[in-house]
Amino acid sequence: MSSPRCSPILLALLLSLSARAAVVAPSPGQPARLRSEEALIVFDPLTSQQTVVVQHTFDGTTAPFGLLLATPEAARVQIVPERLQEAVDDFLHPSAKTIRTLDLEFHSWIGGLLVREVGDPPSEGDESPGRVPPARGEAVLLGSAPEPVHDWILANGFTLAPAQAAWLADLRAKGWSVTGVVVQPPKSAAPPPSLRGPVLALTHAAEAPVFAAGMPPFAVTGSGGVDLPPVEVAVLTEWAVSLAAESPPEPYFADTLSGRDVNRLGGRAGVPWAFRRDGTLTAFRLERPPGAGILQFVRSEARAAIRPDPVPREKVHRFRVPIELPALACVLVAVLWARSRRREPAEGGHRIRL
């Protein structure tokens, strides 16, 4: 596939997706496959603006790759702190009280001196019990012409597959605007099991909440006879919404939010959207649609509150305990006990001297 063809097709794909669509453009020989994506659509009917906050999860990789995002109008793109996405997740997936467990790992000091450990030494990332930080992102507005997209692909050394090119060709005539994001995974000696992408906020003009969840089959982990991962989309606006379909699915979350709750999602950093008044949050877990997969949401009747059951959170405290330590403790107790026995007074009030 030649680069000139990639650019028009690439742009076409992006142009057809309503709220946001992503094309993964990996480095040569370094596959970057999508595992899942979570999106929050904040639609303000007063200003006819929509902000999509989205985070992708990929198969683990250490090589940089590109994301191409399409919007019906030129979008203002921000890289926002991950705590915003975490706050949304905590709201949609509440957790119960933390269950704390103790995990003791016994090892031998003497054995470690006599026998060298087999295997690779632990990396810097293994020393920290916390999660691997998300990838960094650098976004640039490429516009609606094919040339900037083509130049961006070549300048960053990315590639596109034929399936992506064909998908983009079908969307080429839409005239949408494209944004490119260079994704830089954290530095590591070995790729992690999975990689969390940067949290992106795209704001653009819109008449109704809409989201493009389509993806070329090869670009999603699980293709080739295996079910594709579902898509989680939440919509925050002034009213309840449902998916525009003959048999719309039921949401797994539906409840009203006060303006204070909306503002608290962003914490001290604030939220990247202008909608800050009372509204309704509705969340769906959907099967990934075929083709472009444009999901349109329409106003619906108000629902009774729907909230998932809290999931217990387990926190494991791990400690490495030398097996010689209990033995030394037993020996020390025995020595102290023997010395105290020797110092006990004999009959007549005299102490026994050795």
Task: Give a written overview of the molecule.
This protein is α+β, with helices and mostly antiparallel strands. The protein is built from eight helices and 17 strands. Strand 2 (34-44) and strand 3 form a beta hairpin. The radius of gyration is 28 Å and the shape is extended. The chain has one domain. Helix 1 packs across helix 6.
Outline the fold blueprint.
Elements: H1 3-16, E1 21-26, E2 34-44, E3 49-59, E4 65-71, E5 76-80, H2 82-92, E6 95-107, H3 109-114, H4 124-127, E7 136-143, H5 146-156, H6 162-171, E8 177-184, E9 194-196, E10 199-205, E11 210-212, E12 231-237, E13 241-243, E14 253-257, H7 259-264, E15 279-286, E16 294-299, E17 311-322, H8 324-342
Parallel strand pairs: 2-12, 6-17
Antiparallel strand pairs: 1-4, 2-3, 3-9, 3-10, 4-8, 5-10, 7-8, 11-16, 12-15, 13-16, 14-15
Helix pairs in contact: 1-5, 1-6
Question: Main attributes?
Answer:
354 residues, 8 helices, 4-stranded antiparallel beta sheet, 35% strand, 8-stranded mixed beta sheet, single chain, extended, 17 strands, disordered N terminus, alpha+beta
Run of helices and strands: HEEEEEHEHHEHHEEEEEEEHEEEH
Mean pLDDT: 77
Question: How many alpha or pi helices?
Answer: 8
**Class by alpha and beta content:** alpha+beta
N-to-C CA distance? 94 Å
**Helix proportion:** 10-25%
- Biggest beta-sheet profile: 8 strands, mixed
Radius of gyration: 28 Å
**Amount of beta strand:** 25-35%
Number of domains: 1
Number of strands: 17
Unreliable runs: 1-20, 122-129
Shape verdict: extended
